[in-house]
Write a structure and sequence with these properties.
TATA-Binding Protein; globular; alpha+beta
Length: about 300
């Protein structure tokens, strides 16, 4: 830029010389005698101009002018990096043999299936397809979300910490009383900690129990749409001590708000959605009663 400025200044001065000469000659018209002397006095000025004439070498200086312009776009590639993909390993996607599709298609929209006979069981999913589906999800869960196995289980669990001072047996008693009030049937219990002690000789294991409850009306409607849902039934609430002897109540979290706006596509009728939400609310009500020691 400094070179261009000096070059422009030299060209401007060189172009102005004829004008300066005319301005000097103008007063010479009124004084003819002095005119020759004025011309001679100004004459050296053009002679000094040739040193500035090397400005004609401007065409040779033109190439450097272009170079700085070419350097500016160099920073553009850095802006094209996707920050959301920097933790996802590329080879993980290349190993999926789906003809260019990274996601395996394991189902079809419920609306396209038409009306189905109740309790219609879908064809089993090939184990290899399940494996590839999970392999596709692993980079997202582990790298992008930084989700370990305990993190994934924590995501799927709905849990409430029992208030201090409430004993383990009091939690169970409060839960069963509330379930009876809500017309929930207590259909079973699994005293896991006793097996730890008797079978594994683990005397240090914390107390862990799993209690099962059932609302047969809502359960039946769920099974009509998807018989596979039976693997989640009956509804279970776990009561357990953690490593610090704090007591917790937990259940699998299946909040209907997660599918809000997609109920119709998934084949969930308004009546079933209402029943499922009431079912979860009642299960949480049972958990809250146990955590608070309510009678």
């Amino acid at each position: 830029m400094r070179y261009l400025t000096r070059l422009s200044t030299s060209l401007f001065l060189f172009a102005s010389l004829p004008v300066l000469a005319q301005q000097v000659e103008a007063p010479a018209a009124d004084a003819p005698v002095a005119a020759p002397q004025a011309v001679e006095a100004v004459t050296p000025a053009p002679a000094a101009a040739p040193p500035a004439v090397p400005a004609a070498a401007a065409p040779a200086a033109a190439p450097p002018v272009v170079q700085p312009v070419a350097v500016v776009p160099v920073a553009a590639p850095a802006a094209m990096v996707n920050p959301y993909m920097q933790w996802v390993p590329v080879p993980a996607m290349q190993s999926l043999p789906f003809g260019g599709l990274p996601i395996p298609l394991i189902g079809q929209p419920q609306a396209s299936m038409g009306k189905q006979k109740p309790y219609t069981m879908r064809p089993p999913i090939n184990p290899e397809v399940k494996r590839q589906m999970m392999q596709m999800m692993m980079p997202i869960m582990n790298n992008m979300f930084r989700m370990s196995m305990p993190d994934a289980m924590n995501w799927m669990a709905h849990k409430i910490k029992v208030k201090p001072g409430i004993k383990f047996d009091e939690v169970i008693e409060s839960m069963n009383l509330r379930a009876n009030q809500l017309n929930f049937k207590h259909v079973g219990e699994n005293l896991m900690y006793k097996d730890f002690q008797a079978v594994l000789n683990d005397k240090d294991a914390p107390r862990i129990e799993v209690h099962s409850y059932c609302d047969i009306a809502v359960g039946r409607e769920l099974l009509k749409i998807s018989p596979e849902f039976v693997v989640f039934l009956p509804c279970r609430i776990a009561v357990m001590e953690d490593g610090d002897k704090n007591i917790w109540v937990l259940m699998i979290d299946w909040n209907m708000d997660w599918v809000a706006g997609y109920s119709q596509q998934m084949g969930i009728t308004p009546e079933l959605a209402k029943g499922a939400m009431e079912l979860r609310d009642k299960m949480e009500n049972i958990m809250q009663a146990g955590a608070n020691g309510d009678i």
